[in-house]
Amino acid sequence: MPKRVDHEERRAQIAEALIRVAGRRGLHAVGMRDVAAEAGVSLRLVQYYFETKEKLLFYGLQHLTARFTARVGARLAAAGPDPGPRATVEALLLASLPTDEEGRTFHLLYSSYAILSVTDGALAAQPFIDNPDAAENALTGLLETARNAGLADPSVAPRTEAVSLLAMAAAMGTSILVGQRTPESAIAVLHHHLNRIFTPTPTKPQ
Amino acid sequence: MPKRVDHEERRAQIAEALIRVAGRRGLHAVGMRDVAAEAGVSLRLVQYYFETKEKLLFYGLQHLTARFTARVGARLAAAGPDPGPRATVEALLLASLPTDEEGRTFHLLYSSYAILSVTDGALAAQPFIDNPDAAENALTGLLETARNAGLADPSVAPRTEAVSLLAMAAAMGTSILVGQRTPESAIAVLHHHLNRIFTPTPTKPQ
DNA sequence: TTTTTCGTGATACGACCGTACCATGATGTT
DNA sequence: AACATCATGGTACGGTCGTATCACGAAAAA
């Protein structure tokens, strides 16, 4: 047998090319030839590793969420070891804002996929219910933990606030994308609500 | 000169056809032939009244926002004459949720246009800054009025809360669209925040 | 009544898209 | 050494898309 290339790695390379070019020109405008050119391979290769465009797009979505998960993890790690619930929540929310080029691409493409999935049934399979639900559950758990630990107002409704925070981050992310809002103002709004939810940390009375 | 047709009316008819078919199959999937068929006219006619597809899309966006404004106005009118600030805010927010077919189309298409405008510069001209800003200003004004009238907690930050409410409505609207959330749960979250912002009306002690 | 101009139709053109087909090195296996 | 098979390139095909072109009836203006 011949060269025996790692198919999964190749697919990842091509998927990243897809993400790059889609982040530049929009998901709707990207064709298989564009992806091939961006990845530096022939059109045939893209066809070889993903038989159809639909499969390429689907794999691209999976790759996108994987990379986003990694991004969130990195932000959490950067928040230091064993960060408090508030720092964790903050890292989670800020990671989803398009404050840098990577975040911009993530937000743009994830929104594009979401809108696409509304009308193009095949995309609507699962990932658009699973991932947001996971984030919502994680955030809810964090708020519950904080409340039980006395770090948050006892009257907060964890799930409702979790949903609210995620929704605000998502929509303000789009506002940033279209140039209506600055990242700073979005962060300020989020901080406002975090200050409302979390009681001032009683660690070190100054 | 010949038949002298009202161009503006024709354009509106075609634009509504565009909105209908785009609401069904997605904005990215709609072609000029689809619009022509939906409007019951020939392809040539669509070309005649909108020379290019870009102009058709642009006019479609204008028409969409006009119809949405009318929808909000109708909701406000339905809230009775001289409704209080809270009822007005509620009507505004609920009108933007995709709870019926019309709202679904509005939300889907407006989101599509927004995402499109990120990469397709020509669309990014103005309307995506102006309209959201107007809504934000209107809501801010209502919250200020309520606060000054003693209907809202004096500690509320009108602009921040306005931004928050609009963002939550927008993002939860998308959640409804993709089937992740029910309209009822979205409305419940909004009510939660309205209850937080507005003090119980002291009109009629029961 | 002639003429000009508007509204409308049918159709053609060039470009691009996703996909399919054919060919050919390279590399393991026998 | 011969062969089977994987990886890759080149290219062609059918379809669709936005746009342009040609043609014609109808009605207001002369």
UniProtKB/TrEMBL annotation, chains A, B:
Record-level Gene Ontology MF annotations: DNA-binding transcription factor activity; transcription cis-regulatory region binding
Name of the protein in its database record: Transcriptional regulator BetI
Domain of life: Bacteria
Entry keyword set: DNA-binding, Transcription, Transcription regulation
